[in-house]
Structures are given as structure tokens and as C-alpha cells.
Design goal:
There is one protein chain. The protein is α+β, with helices and mostly antiparallel strands. It has a domain of 28 residues. The chain contains two helices and two strands, in the order H-H-E-E. A two-stranded antiparallel ribbon has the order 1-2. The two termini are 27 Å apart.
Length: 80
Amino acid sequence: MSRPGPETPADSPLTMVQALASPVYRDLATPRVSSGEPAVDFELEELDLTTGVERATGRTVRLSDFAGIRPVALVFGSYT
């Protein structure tokens, strides 16, 4: 039985049903951390968003910089 989902883009080599059925997709969708377990530390380039134009500040921010200071929400997705 196929799952409902967004339409497959015309230039996609796979349909949404094929992608969702893929063992690679299922592996990527499997959580690797449990609730309460610390996240893997990573770093990103800081962006200045105050001017309305995204510009790199030249500084690096690490997830661990926020440990014990404030909650951090990570949002992953595609906006295309």
C-alpha cells in the first residue's frame, strides 16, 4: 500500500513512494540518539541576520557553546 505524500517533482529520478520504501531512506530516518542523550557537538559559521541580508560574520558557533545556557532547537528540512 502506498503512502500519501507530496507530488514527485518532474525532474526526480524516483517517485515519493520509491524514496519512502528505500532502505537508505529508512536508515536515514532512524533516530540515533534517545531522549535525554546529549547531541553530537558541531559547529557552524555565524550569520548576521540583522540587516535583512544574510552575511557571514567570520565567527564560528558550536552547539556546546549553548550547553546549560538556553534551549536549542534544531530544524532540518527543505524549503524548495
